[in-house]
Backbone:
């Protein structure tokens, strides 16, 4: 009976984490470039009361045995890097990545971070930066008096300066990809950091070596499905409720056992 109490408690704690993950997905439904999380669970250790395959005294063999589980535990919270929908913004510095790859960003510490959010802007020095002012890598600077910016699908950036009829090429936006994107560490601000699990980045020109292309004037929206997350929330809530009922049933059985009379 005590085993049922603790086993059901692990189920309730697991569903609390599940709801935390769902809530974060729902909170970021309108975050550009956001990738939804999924909580993965696994069962805990089992107590073997009778081993399967054991030969009994009369020579017969036990076909299944008796193994009692001890509940569940969180195994991982995985980022799902499926493609989000495209939203047209007509902003010249907005970029959407169609396919694999991340934009590279230089942090104040000098480290490189990676993002799918193409909400780029120009700072006081003309550098192309993120919403937090972090410059992209390779660095691209837009001249003053620029009247038009063109970004090709292969990342080539050109600008038309006032008084000039011929656009001048400013540089090329490069993308980075990883053998295991799910191994990247999310640091907030739409940024990811490289880890041993993600592998080292493979950089290149958009469209080359399996890298995606870039779309100017578009943003990649979150890949969160509100309907799917609502269903996950309802399922998690009902599972939490069912585990609480198991605790109540175990408690009631203990109460009845405690009130037995000789």
Residues:
């Amino acid at each position: 009976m005590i085993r049922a109490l603790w086993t059901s408690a692990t189920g309730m704690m697991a569903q609390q984490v599940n709801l935390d993950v769902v809530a974060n997905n729902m909170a970021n439904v309108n975050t550009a470039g956001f990738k939804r999380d999924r909580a993965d669970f696994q069962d805990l250790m089992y107590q073997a009361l009778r081993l399967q395959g054991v030969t009994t005294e009369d020579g017969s063999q036990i076909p299944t045995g008796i193994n009692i589980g001890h509940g569940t535990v969180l195994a991982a919270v995985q980022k799902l890097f499926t493609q989000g929908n495209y939203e047209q913004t007509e902003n010249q510095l907005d970029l959407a990545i169609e396919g694999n790859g991340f934009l590279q960003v230089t942090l104040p510490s000098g480290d490189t971070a990676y993002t799918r959010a193409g909400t780029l802007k120009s700072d006081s020095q003309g550098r192309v930066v993120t919403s937090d002012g972090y410059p992209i890598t390779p660095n691209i600077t837009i001249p003053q008096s620029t009247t038009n910016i063109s970004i090709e699908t292969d990342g080539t950036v050109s600008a038309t300066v006032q008084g000039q009829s011929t656009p001048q090429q400013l540089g090329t936006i490069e993308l980075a990809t990883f053998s295991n994107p799910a191994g990247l560490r999310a640091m907030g601000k739409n940024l990811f950091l490289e880890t041993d699990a993600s592998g080292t980045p493979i950089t290149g020109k958009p469209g080359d070596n399996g890298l995606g292309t870039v779309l100017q004037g578009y943003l990649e929206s979150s890949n969160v499905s509100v309907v799917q997350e609502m269903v996950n929330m309802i399922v998690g809530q009902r599972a939490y409720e069912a585990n609480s009922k198991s605790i109540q049933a175990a408690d009631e059985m203990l109460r009845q056992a405690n009130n037995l009379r000789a």
